[in-house]
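TICKET: design request
STATUS: open
ATTACHED STRUCTURE:
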């Protein structure tokens, strides 16, 4: 590597991998080089920052990755970084590698880490990447659309069997404490019931009644989508068996939802957010989170972004109930 006087940007992915993260990495590298920076990839998230796993990236080191799920930089959840000593060391490492800016791609836990680094004088720019869509400052997080489509495909397949054998299937989906994946896949998959962390669960009203009423209206197979954040999948299965007299099958989709080739939406959003993250740093608008608002890609100050809240609307919950009749 030849010495260079150019300014330097580092990029890392942190938290759960999400399809479209590679598109964002590619965009950060290419936009960084376009605007005159040397760009460095940091492996394994904040763990790699602490360990100094930092190496130069080139236009070609991000070739052929836009179509790949996961993250070529690898990722981690770093308990060590999550301490004041860890943050101090992270800031020291950023200075040691002469990073003039750091792009963090991840969820709000990763953004809190970025904010801590910003408070130590390291300029940061954050990109929302998580399948959960649970980052309040943005309408959309990279990876969500791919996960939705993966879950929709799984529901369609399970439904073929539920239909053919006249069965009841409970499908547990990811989303941590949020029900965005569950609600939208219940709507897209034509589920009979949907159990969300955003709505207090009444198993009789929300699950048993729709099955019994549906049976009385002529339904002979049932799909129940349960968000993992509710934590009651087994209890729901037991209640259906006891009160309806059918033994449901339970499918926990797990990591199938996290991987896979990103959809067009995740490739394009990851790309546009990656370019924006670099432009924010380049224009001196440091310590911001890139967000999607009504179709626009904007930057929001990180403290403001972390203080925001969002939730699923009552209208969407009502609509999913109406549609399941
Ligand atoms: O945040 C993404 C996510 O897949 C959540 O939906 C899930 O609760 C969590 O990560 C699982 O985390 P881990 O990678 O530690 O298994």
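STATUS: resolved
RESOLUTION: sequence designed for all positions
ATTACHED SEQUENCE:
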């Amino acid at each position: 590597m030849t010495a260079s006087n150019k300014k330097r940007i580092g990029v890392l992915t942190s938290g759960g991998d999400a399809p479209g993260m590679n598109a964002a990495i590619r965009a950060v590298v290419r936009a960084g080089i376009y605007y005159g920076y040397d760009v460095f990839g940091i492996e394994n998230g904040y763990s790699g920052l602490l360990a100094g796993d930092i190496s130069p990236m080139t236009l070609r080191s991000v070739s052929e990755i836009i179509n790949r799920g996961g993250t070529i930089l690898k990722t981690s959840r770093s308990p060590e970084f999550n301490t004041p000593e860890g943050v101090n060391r992270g800031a020291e490492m950023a200075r040691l590698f002469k990073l003039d800016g750091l792009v963090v791609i991840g969820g709000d836990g990763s953004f809190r880490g970025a904010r801590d680094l910003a408070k130590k004088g390291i300029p940061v720019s954050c990109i929302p990447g998580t399948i959960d869509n649970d980052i309040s400052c943005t309408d959309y997080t990279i990876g969500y659309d791919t996960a939705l489509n993966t879950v929709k495909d799984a529901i369609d397949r399970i439904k073929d069997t539920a239909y053919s054998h006249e069965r009841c299937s409970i499908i547990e989906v990811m989303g941590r404490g949020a029900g965005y994946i569950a609600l939208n896949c219940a709507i897209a998959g034509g589920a009979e019931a949907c159990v969300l962390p955003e709505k207090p669960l009444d198993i009789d009203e929300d699950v048993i009644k729709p099955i019994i009423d549906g049976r009385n209206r002529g339904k002979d197979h049932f799909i129940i989508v349960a968000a993992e954040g509710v934590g009651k999948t087994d209890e729901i299965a037991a209640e259906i068996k006891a009160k309806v007299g059918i033994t449901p099958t339970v499918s926990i989709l797990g990591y199938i939802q996290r991987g896979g080739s990103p959809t067009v939406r995740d490739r394009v959003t990851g790309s546009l957010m990656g370019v924006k993250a670099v432009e924010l740093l380049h224009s001196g608008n440091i310590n911001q989170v890139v967000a999607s608002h009504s179709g626009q890609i904007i930057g929001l100050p990180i403290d403001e972004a972390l203080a925001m809240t969002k939730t699923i609307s009552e209208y969407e919950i009502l609509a999913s109930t109406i549609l399941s009749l």
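CLOSING REMARK: The mean pLDDT is 97. The two ends are 64 Å apart (CA to CA).
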